[in-house]
Description:
alpha+beta, Immunoglobulin-like, Arc Repressor Mutant, subunit A, 20% helix, 38% strand, elongated
Amino acid sequence: MKKLCFLAFALLLIGSASATTINNHEVAIDLETSTVNVRMDISEMSSSAFYYTTSFPVTGSFTAKADGEQLECERQDLPPGSYITCDTERKNLTINMEYTTEGLVTQREGVNIFRYSQAIQRPTDSYSLKVLLPQGSGLIESSNVSLPVISPESGVSGTDGQRIHVTWNSDPGLGQRSFQAIFNGSGEEESREDDGIDLVWIFPILVVSMLFAGLYVLFRSREDIDSAYDELSEDEADVLDTVRENDNSMLQKDIVDESEYSKAKISSVISELEEKGIVKKSKEGRSNKISISRKYRY
Length: 298
């Protein structure tokens, strides 16, 4: 249940942010130091903040930069991972993150199993994952285990002369991607209980999360209603205050009753507010319902 709640929260801001385009998403994992490096080349970012969900918890240091400049970020830790929010006004940028984590490797029947899941939350042109095995480790022979040694099979193994690595490259669609590599040699000693999320939950979690995401990002993108007062006359400000004091929506005839202005005056002021996009007017019975525009936070 904790994992279900985490994924619902972790994907919270994806709905409206789906208009954001990720040109390139690269993840590099060093299993010897449990360090994760993420690089994302982003164009046309549709919100004023960058959001990212880690598959494993951030347990140590965390840094995030946009085009080389340090970002101020907030982190929400919920098992099994962490949810990152970084404010930035840039629309085209390169994000670099580095953090330490735990639980990347489990042990079973004498072998080490690396498993990693990536939620592709926005349209992404290319995605790559590179995992660097610990010093002295090697991939298991496929004949010695019943599970795939490398999964998906598109993963390619290689070496830098000292350590072995496995790399996956893809042009992904939206959804969850899972990766696996089985190796011998040194790995994490402790086994991670419940080392995966039941796939039956993935689709409903994504649907629910994207729904919440749209609502939250829509709220974040709205203007503060207080900024609207700069362009208002005293009469317009008085009428707007009256509407705000009545749960941001009320009948026009009730505004007349609660104000010191005439019916004609209220009608004129409301027309001005409507023309400025601050309120909306809709017919309700024999009167009009006046509501503050949804483009504002209040």
